[in-house]
Structure formats: structure tokens, C-alpha cells
Design brief:
- The protein is of the alpha/beta class and about 400 residues long.
- The protein has three domains: about 180 residues, FAD/NAD(P)-binding domain, CATH 3.50.50.60; about 120 residues, FAD/NAD(P)-binding domain (3-Layer(bba) Sandwich); about 80 residues, FAD/NAD-linked reductase, C-terminal dimerisation domain (Enolase-like, domain 1), CATH 3.30.390.30.
- Helix content is about 25%, strand content about 30%.
- The chain has a five-stranded parallel sheet.
- Helix 1 runs parallel beside helix 9.
- The longest helix has 15 residues.
- The radius of gyration is 22 Å and the shape is globular.
């Protein structure tokens, strides 16, 4: 019997399921339902190359329209899914159309966390999540002037580096006492603080925002918790992503800051999978469920689900990795470092070429590498082979990661 696969979400993860299925000679109908008007595209360049003018919209596409036609993959754009009918195994579209499925993949991604202060709706307050966001943001950056970036995480700092290079006067406001505090060690936080300040960016830590002020419906400044007001022609907000799990919740599927799945990426309903930014899943390197926002995770989970639909179910255990480009500095991350209790730094932070090794209970669980791609590659090999490195070994004179492979 021919099985029909419906994929809700036209991002990296959704695309990967469809492409992998066709690569495995799956001959049933495949439908991708996307809320946005664009074919599946790359998100990472939006806050980097695209707003700098180094990438065009056409170059962001994962594949051209011909790919979907040639591979008989139906892509419906501007399609909002209103509900899931698990009993009838149908996806209900906003217009009322009911689309049957045999296997359903939820690749719904995430949405930006909105700034919860007065004035956040003013023109000139921007987010960077979708292509439409980036298209609207680009001319505002090109106009120059005073830019305030709210949020000192990856997206905020990547945007700050871009707009600074383009000649804008930039202020970064971070509510916590260090940059990227939820994901990197103090060594990395301090390095990136100094990096941005050295490029003329005004980095303010422990800075809360109480209001966005404006005139005539457009932003003119940002009011902080200390009572000061920072002039702003443009405000870019990057304070996190919320998983799009509303459809799953309404359908009675378990959610915990994401759609809960098992090690095979299945929900409690065996015909429904969830992958990518929206999925909360177990991982051998994690304590409890984890939700990851990365290209690697989207691609690898898409492949695993394609295998499962083809009757080749496999446990998801891919080694997580991620990167961030700020100025000419490349940060590469491998592993999962939540709940680490110690670190070892290799190399010289002052030269801008170093790695931070993370440990929990004496065993290495992750590596952050700054301009040290060889350490990153070795780390991926070590974790992929499930080889353990102890903190005592890492602290020994003459230790090198390469010697551990």
C-alpha cells in the first residue's frame, strides 16, 4: 500500500525528510506545508551574509523549484495548518481543507520571543527569524545611525558584528551579567565582550529594558531599568526562540518546551514524528530532554525520520555541533555542555585561538573552539567514537586533543 507523508514545516528539517525519502526511493506522495511564501531556505545567513549584502535571496534556497517538481514533492506555501485530527489521520488547513496522512512529520520550528515591554510594536523594532524579517531589516541597517541590540546571545551578537562593520553605532543590552551566559563558559563570555568592545560596540551587561520610546509611531530610543534612555534609529531584538508546539498541544500530544518525542523521534502517536527546533528529545549526551536549534540537528533528525518511515528505525544519537561567526572570529561548538562543573582552556585566549573543554563529573562533555577548527574536528571524532577524556588527562602537561583520537 502506498503511504502518504505530510510534513508540516518548510524549513531545513522538513526539507531534509522529503529529500531523504526520495533519496531512499520512497515512491509515495510527499507534501510539505509551509507557512511562509518562500521555498525552504537557509536561516543562518539571515543574520550574517544576507543583511551584509553578501548573499541574495535566491542563494539562500536549499533547492530550486525544479528539485521539488523533478522529485514529485508537493510544496504548499502560505499554508497555515489550523489543527491535527489524529483520529481521522488528517491535517486541517486554515481554509478548511483536510489532508489525509499515513505518516505525519511536525517540523514546525520556532518563533521569536517577543519583547514584553511598552513600545515594542513601534516601527523600527525588528527581529531576525524569517526571510521576510531579514528583507525588512536590511535597508534599515543600510540607512545607518544608532542601533540598539537587545539580547547578548548568538543572534544578537551576530547582528551587532554585522551592523558595526557596516558603520552603525551599536549598543548591546544584555540582562544577564555576561554574554551568551546560558550556553558558554565565562572564558568565552569575557572574550566576546572584549572582542565587541574592541570593535567599538558598547556592551552593557545587567541591563534591563523597560520601554521602547518613539515619536510618530517610530522608535527613537530604548529606556533602561536604570532610568537612562539610549538613542535608537533601529532596535534589533534577539531574546530567544519559542518552540512552535501549539498544534501538538491542541492535538493532545505531550509537550515540554517542545514536542516530546522518544529516541526514535516519535511522539506518543506512532504515526506522528517531531524534529528540528520544535522537538524535545532524549539524547545520550544530555540529562533529560533537550531541544536544539541548529542546522546539524535539523538535518540529522530529518534523515532519521526518513529512515523510520522506510521501516529502518534508528535511535537518534548524532553528535551535536554548532557554529557562530562574529567579525572574522569563528566559534565552533561540539557536544552538550549543560550542567558542566569544570573547564580546561587550551591555547592562548589573548591570541584569539583557543578551545574550552567542558567537564561533568570528571568526563569531557563538550568543546568550544575559537578559530581552532582542528580542535573542533577532533572533538567531533572523539564524541562520535564515544571516547572519554578525563579532566585529569586534560590538565596534564603537554596534553593535546589530537593525541586522544
Amino acid at each position: 500500500m502506498t503511504r502518504k507523508v505530510v510534513i508540516v514545516g518548510a524549513g531545513q528539517a522538513g526539507y531534509q525528510v522529503a529529500a531523504s525519502l526520495r533519496g531512499k526511493k520512497f515512491d509515495g506522495p510527499i507534501v510539505i506545508l509551509g507557512e511562509e511564501p518562500a521555498l525552504p531556505y537557509q536561516r543562518p545567513p539571515l543574520s550574517k551574509g544576507y543583511v551584509k549584502g553578501e548573499a541574495k535571496e535566491s542563494t539562500l534556497l536549499l533547492r530550486s523549484a525544479d528539485f521539488y517538481t523533478t522529485n514529485n514533492i508537493e510544496v504548499r506555501l502560505d499554508c497555515c495548518v489550523a489543527a491535527l485530527d489524529r483520529t481521522g489521520r488528517e491535517v486541517v488547513c486554515a481554509g478548511g481543507e483536510r489532508m489525509p496522512y499515513d505518516s505525519l512529520v511536525l517540523a514546525t520550528g520556532g518563533r521569536v520571543r517577543k519583547l514584553p515591554v511598552p513600545g515594542a510594536e513601534l516601527a523600527g523594532v525588528a527581529y531576525v527569524r524569517t526571510l521576510a524579517d531579514a528583507v525588512a531589516l536590511k535597508p534599515q541597517i543600510e540607512a545607518g545611525g544608532n542601533v540598539v541590540v537587545i539580547g547578548g546571545g548568538f543572534i544578537g551578537l551576530e547582528c551587532a558584528s554585522v551592523v558595526s562593520v557596516l558603520g552603525c553605532k551599536v549598543v548591546v543590552l544584555e540582562a544577564m551579567d555576561r554574554l551568551m551566559a546560558r550556553v558558554v563558559s565565562p572564558v568565552l563570555s569575557d572574550y566576546y565582550r572584549d572582542l565587541h568592545r574592541g570593535r567599538g560596540v558598547d556592551v552593557r551587561l545587567g541591563a534591563s529594558v523597560t520601554e521602547i520610546v518613539g515619536t510618530g509611531g517610530r522608535v527613537t530610543g530604548v529606556r533602561c531599568g536604570d532610568g537612562s534612555t539610549i538613542p535608537a534609529d533601529l532596535v534589533v531584538v534577539g531574546i530567544g526562540i519559542i518552540a512552535n508546539d501549539d498544534l501538538a498541544k491542541a492535538a493532545g500530544l505531550a509537550c515540554d518546551r517542545g514536542i516530546v518525542v522518544d529516541a526514535l523521534l516519535r511522539t506518543a502517536d506512532p504515526d506522528i514524528y517531531a524534529i528540528g527546533d520544535c522537538a524535545a528529545f532524549p539524547h545520550p549526551m544530555a540529562q533529560g530532554l533537550v531541544r536544539l536549534e541548529s542546522v546539524q540537528n535539523a538535518i540529522d533528525q530529518g534523515k532519521i525520520v526518513a529512515d523510520a518511515i522506510m521501516g529502518e528505525a534508528k535511535t537518534y544519537a548524532a553528535v551535536p555541533w554548532f557554529w557562530s561567526d562574529q567579525y572574522e572570529v569563528k566559534l565552533q561548538i561540539v557536544g552538550l555542555t549543560q550542567h558542566y562543573d569544570d573547564t580546561v582552556t587550551l591555547g592562548d585566549v589573548g591570541t584569539g585561538r583557543f578551545s574550552v573543554l567542558y567537564f561533568r563529573d570528571g568526563a569531557m562533555i563538550g568543546i568550544d573552539s575559537v578559530n581552532m577548527p582542528s580542535d573542533h574536528v577532533v572533538g567531533r571524532k572523539l564524541f562520535g567514537a564515544r571516547k572519554s577524556v578525563t579532566i585529569d588527562a586534560a590538565r596534564a602537561p603537554g596534553f593535546s586533543l589530537r593525541s586522544q583520537v
